[in-house]
Write a structure and sequence with these properties.
The protein has 306 residues and is α/β, with parallel strands linked by helices. It has helices at residues 3-7, 36-45, 63-72, 93-109, 138-159, 176-184, 197-202, 207-213, 228-237, 241-246, 260-268, 290-303; strands at 14-18, 50-52, 76-84, 114-119, 162-165, 192-196, 218-223, 225-226, 250-251, 274-278. The protein has a single domain, classed as Alpha-Beta Barrel (TIM Barrel). It is globular, with a radius of gyration of 18 Å. This is 2-keto-myo-inositol dehydratase.
């Protein structure tokens, strides 16, 4: 055993997985994405045990079919993902709940316990069209926080799932200021975070600081890194998130920031079991590109103790 291996901490509270996103999957159906069976084959081959559902409809939505397909490959589901625009207030509730019900039903049936909640974008991630202002009004913040608490309460009551809200580039929950305002305005017994290390760095945040400051609110992790040089260009030019991804702003670890060992160690120190799901945004990408990256990333995380 090398000295570096011997020095690696044992991260026994961290459950590492991956997701369709790391295979360039952003949409339920898209000709530029790998077929779902290939994703399942390759994520297992790369050494991962846990996966997320990805965009609803990409993987089979029949629980019996999906249970068979995942079990045959030694895979288990950690979470489903939902998209919301709760800052628009009660008018969007019925549409939101219909979407949540579909995803939560499958998530529950697969034995997972989490729903990752991604806020809607304020500019189109493909065209850069401005959809709404990048800053919320005080009234919209109230709609966002009270709506999220309502969602968390109902999801827990009806499905036994916990929601984890995902700060995300080009959404209203992005920067340190916005993330802290959101956390300070929501009930810690209902609403926690999915901390995506790449998105938080993209928006200028410090993941280790957030974990140490708001540790009780960290319910889930997405592991991701950004390329500092590309990020500087993206920031200078105001490039939207979609084109930034095509430019390579998200990179495989350990080539970018933030450094993941301190993040993982800070998460381990919380003393709770946490999923840490690798998500390297790279839509669109060549079909043969994800698997080698996934193998290297899994090897790197093992070298960190995870």
């Amino acid at each position: 055993m090398s000295a570096s291996s011997a020095a690696s901490p044992v991260l026994d509270r961290i459950r590492v997985g991956s997701a369709p996103d790391s295979w360039g999957v952003w949409f339920p159906d898209d000709d530029q994405q790998v077929p779902w069976r290939r994703f399942l084959d390759e994520v297992s081959e790369a050494g991962y045990e846990w996966i997320e559902l990805g965009p609803y409809g990409y993987l089979p939505t029949d629980p019996a079919v999906l249970r068979d397909e995942t079990a045959r490959r030694g895979l288990k589901v950690s979470a489903g993902t939902i998209f919301t625009s709760l800052h628009h207030g009660p008018a969007v509730w019925d549409r939101t709940w219909a979407h949540v019900t579909e995803v939560a039903t499958l998530t529950q049936a697969m034995g997972a316990r989490h729903l990752v909640v991604i806020p809607s974008f304020w500019r189109d991630d493909r065209t850069a069209e401005l959809l709404e202002p990048s800053e919320l009004t005080d009234e919209q913040w109230r709609h966002l926080t009270t709506g999220t608490e309502r969602l968390a309460r109902r999801v827990r009551e009806e499905f036994g799932l916990d929601i984890v809200v995902h700060p995300h580039a080009d959404t209203h929950i992005d920067t340190e200021e916005h993330v802290e305002r959101f956390l300070d305005s929501t009930d810690s017994g209902l609403v926690n975070l999915c901390l995506d290390t790449g998105h938080y760095a993209y928006c200028g945040g410090d993941s280790v600081k957030l974990i140490k400051t708001y540790g009780e609110r960290i319910g889930y992790l997405h592991l991701k890194q950004v390329d500092p040089a590309v990020l500087a260009d993206v920031t200078a030019k105001g490039t939207p998130f979609g084109p930034a991804v095509r430019q390579g702003v998200m990179c495989e670890p350990p080539l970018g920031v933030p450094a993941l060992p301190p993040v993982l160690e800070a998460a381990q120190d919380l003393g709770v079991d946490l999923f840490a799901i690798v998500e390297q945004d790279m839509y669109p990408c060549a079909p043969d590109r994800p698997l080698p990256i996934a193998r290297r990333t899994r090897h790197f995380l093992r070298s960190c103790g995870a």
